[in-house]
Design goal:
- By secondary structure, this protein is mostly helical.
- 83% of the residues lie in helices and 0% in strands.
- It has a single domain, classed as Arfaptin homology (AH) domain/BAR domain (Substrate Binding Domain Of Dnak, Chain:A, Domain 2, Up-down Bundle).
- The chain has helices spanning 2-7, 18-45, 49-60, 71-86, 91-170.
- Helix 2 runs antiparallel to helix 5 (91-170).
- The longest helix is centred in the last third of the chain and has 80 residues, at 91-170.
- It is rod-shaped.
- Its main location: cytoplasm.
- Keywords: Coiled coil, Cytoplasm.
- It is found in: Cytoplasm.
Amino acid sequence: LQFTEEKLGQAEKTELDAHFENLLARADCTKNWTEKILRQTEVLLQPNPSARVEEFLYEKLDRKVPSRVTNGELLAQYMTEAANDFGPGTPYGKTLIKVGETQRRLGAAEREFIRSASLNFLTPLRNFLEGDWRTISKERRILQNRRLDLDACKARLKKAKAAEAKAAVTL
């Protein structure tokens, strides 16, 4: 009732401390930017949306995400197979072997980068959103409910005093 009356402008609302309001605004801003950065980093690390959904499902089911071959590793595999077809002794075959080995190392480096970024960058962001932010939201709801209770009590006290003053005047 108090919440509805406040929204309709029929009840007074106890204002929170300006510093506290500033902290709440900063917390909201931090949450919003953390979500955006987390989503965009996930897109950068895994551009394939269906693969991201699959990884998300594995994560939610607490199962190990199957290891994927990176594009660089796949290209290296193709180059090595082509080099074997052309013959490792031919100039083209030798070149494909060298470039294929370089691509394999690049693919392995990419895989390590993805693993490292996920572990050292995305995990803390997720921990904030799933842990700290939930605690902040819960405490914020509790504070809001307590403030509404306080304002409702203030309104009742004001009505009681007004009724008491009216009764004193009529006697």
